TrEMBL record:
Matching CDD domains: VOC_like (cd07262)
Name of protein: VOC family protein
Residues in VOC domain copies: 1-127
Gene3D superfamilies given in the database record: 2,3-Dihydroxybiphenyl 1,2-Dioxygenase, domain 1
InterPro entries associated with the record: Glyas_Bleomycin-R_OHBP_Dase, Glyas_Fos-R_dOase_dom, VOC_core
Length: 130
């Protein structure tokens, strides 16, 4: 249903360092950079994804940071969820739910939650029975 999603961050360099590290275990990296020259308003936008398709965007345009936003990213396995969580914590993310089964969603819902540098709740989830 969704093609892509994005939100405003307060410090593009700090957020890039966090997301570069946190998303690498999920196979996600920057697929496109929209520079200040391209936007015409001095802002920078970074599109993360794979295979040349940016699905998740962060940018430093906007008067207000998107605090409180929640995004869940697909992981191919529980091991990827674990690796995402470890990388995100090592990159300065705050714990918001260690990797584990969330049976109240369904028996194979395995997720981990971290808070990014701007207070966004970022989750990696696998629905596979592993």
């Amino acid at each position: 249903m969704l093609d892509h999603v994005g939100y405003t961050v307060s410090d593009i360099a700090a957020s890039q360092a966090f997301y570069d590290a946190a998303l690498a275990p999920l196979g996600l990296s920057i697929q496109m950079t929209v520079t200040p020259e391209m936007t015409g308003d001095g802002s920078t936008h970074l599109g993360y994804g794979q295979g040349g398709k940016p699905d998740f965007w962060i940018g430093d345009a906007g008067a207000q940071v998107s605090k409180g936003t929640h995004i869940a990213l697909t992981a191919a396995s529980r091991a990827e969820v674990d690796a995402f969580y470890a990388a995100a914590i090592a990159a300065g993310g705050r714990d918001n739910g260690a990797p584990g089964i969330r049976a109240h969603y369904h028996p194979n819902y395995y997720g981990a939650f971290v808070i990014d540098p701007d207070g966004m709740n970022v989750e990696a989830v696998s629905h596979r029975p592993e």
